[in-house]
Amino acid sequence: MASLVASFTSWRKPFEIVSIIGFLLIILYFFIKEPAVGESEPELQKLIKEGIAMFIVPMNGLKLPQNNDPLMILMTLLKGIVTNPWICMIFTLSFFASALQSANTPNWLALIIDI
């Protein structure tokens, strides 16, 4: 598209066209209905109602400080890992998921940064 439009106009016109399309898509995005948990998998509805299928790990009891202090947020999260079983489980799952993706030695730094 850019090569067709730019050959007849200035180089700025393709960017203007794409930005207008982007703004229209943003407006349409506000009208999209987010499906409820399990709604997109109708064959699993019975399992979800019975409580067998778990799609979301709840983060019960996670209370972060409201002052946006990074050190205080870190300390609160570390305390949550030790005292809250849900947060501990989420941390453990994310640690092992990152470890499986970071199998070679240079990626261990990425493992530490990811968590």
Query: Which percent range describes the beta-strand content?
Result: under 5%
Oligomer: single chain
Radius of gyration over alpha carbons?
23 Å
Overall average residue pLDDT: 76
For the biggest sheet, the summary is:
none
Helix count from the secondary structure assignment: 6
> What proportion of the residues is helical, as a percent range?
55-70%
**Secondary-structure content class:** mainly alpha
Characterise this structure.
- The protein is an all-alpha fold and 115 residues long.
- The protein has a domain at 57-114.
- It is built from six helices and no strands.
- It has helices at 2-8, 13-29, 45-50, 70-83, 85-101, 108-114.
- Keywords: Membrane, Transmembrane, Transmembrane helix.
